[in-house]
Amino acid sequence: MADPARERLRFVQLVTVAGPPSSGKTSVLLKLAAVLGRQGRRLGVVKFDCLTGRDKDVFDAAGIPCAAGQSGALCPDHFFVCNASDAHAWGLSRGLDVLAVESAGLCNRCAPHVEGALAVCVVDNLSGIDTPAKIGPMLRLADVVAVTKGDVVSQAEREVFAFRVRRANPRATVLFVSGLTGQGAEALAHVVAGAPATPSLDGASLRFTMPAAVCSYCLGQRKIGTDHQMGNVRKMDFPREPA
Amino acid sequence: MTSTYPTFAAIWEALPPARDFFAAQGLPMPAPKAAPADYFAALSPDALAEVGTDAATLSARFADFLAALPRLRADAPRVASLTVRGGTGKDGRPEHLDLTLCPGDVAALVGPTGSGKSRFLADVEWLANGDTPTGRRVLLDGKTADAAGRLAASGRLVAQLSQNMHFVMDLTVREFLVAHAESRLLADAPAAAEAVEGLANELAGEPFGPDTALTALSGGQSRALMIADVARLCASPIVLVDEIENAGIDRRKAISLLTGSGKIVLMATHDPLLALTAGRRLVFAAGAVAAVIATSPEEHASLAALAQADAKLAALRDSLRRGGSLCFSQEK
Questions:
Q1: Do A159 and B68 touch (CB under 8 A)?
Q2: Does the CA dihedral B219-B220-B221-B224 come out positive or negative?
Q3: CATH second-level architecture of B82-296?
Q4: CB–CB of A156 and B226 under 8 A?
Q5: Is the Cβ of A109 closer than 8 Å to some Cβ of chain B?
Q6: Cα B126 from chain centre
Q7: What is the pTM of this model?
């Protein structure tokens, strides 16, 4: 028994968890932690937020090790990637079996998913049937899509939603997880158990690129107009009124 | 994978959802006559920058996407029998249970809130194999499912119908049913939608049309539509019904519609009429099934009297709705 435990100290299983705001990422992680805990496996969370978040209190209250950071004025995706290695090191130092790196909704363009680490996307049934197609690489490049809030919509809508998720990302395992009752958390724990171990994030690759920078607005410019725009600027083609 | 198709036209024909790959990534839609390899090689640097990758990676991702598309067709497993073997209750006492249900069977789940009905359902849904807090084992057709089977069945095995579920989509009844039929990849989606509408209207006290907005349906209409839809369009072989309320639908007809569609029905209920409709009642206490009661001949005989009383109540409701009188006596 002692040996596998020591192995785990050096090889935490990293799981990236992403999804739109209020989709239920935190609730899903709480339920997942409970199932893993019953199996004698410890989950910890690094939470990347844009502005403020109260999620750390929720994890603390549940006895789940948690570190939280706010990106503030920085692009949240850049903030995430600049701190990803340190987050991983934190997980190792805490002797966690599973480290969930949870990022807030960000801008839906990017995804925190990393090659060689299990990628989970959390979406909810209330977000509309076009959401799976719109949500971008966060869902398209995920290994697991956890669909939440199924308890408030009809069975038919759950099925249509799940179908659209599968159509947007046919590779993914689609699971229904209830953040309220925990139904489905066992299935998620089962997938997490098979996640690869991540010895280090140094040199690992993101599954998707970050947005192109840098323009004057990145550097704090607030004025609008061509005279104030420099760097990576892209102009739209507006249709012209017929004469 | 892509090399097995000479052109995109051939791909669209074999795998229509393959188009979604381009739409979802914001890539220009390929010309039908183009060959996949040529398309990816010809992508502009701007288009590649937009999707954040190079042509070779993109081409490989498309091949993965095509390879995974058959998963869309993976329907719910067919179930000839569902067996639940007892585990232990919250107090650690053994649960004496060896229950087998077949398509068409109805079991009522009875017991107070917190007595373990939801956990029972979660065990069925996850095909528990002694690895949930109850230690129960769930067998399909007498066999334990392997890991791949459990994951594939997850979310597809049990359909749920409960009172706190609503339609939230901003679509008409017809549009929605067609979307549901399409998600099952049915050949004739409009015909399937029409059949469900007809059935739902038989159940509902007040009729509704195909152009009615889902969100405008009354409680009874929306419940009727959910039941008809689960009976006909939903692939899940097991249905959990959480107390069908009285809101103007024929509850027994609703159950027989589900069983007639070959579903195994698990029904959490406090309604004596519905409980007697079930062949067996599972009595929950302290997180375990404390008893399995088969409906006795005496109980079965009281079903007729109960149905009569229920019909009377339904008539009163109908009269109320139409502005009629509300005279009631036990005799007539």
A1: no
A2: positive
A3: 3-Layer(aba) Sandwich (3.40)
A4: yes
A5: no
A6: 15
A7: 0.88
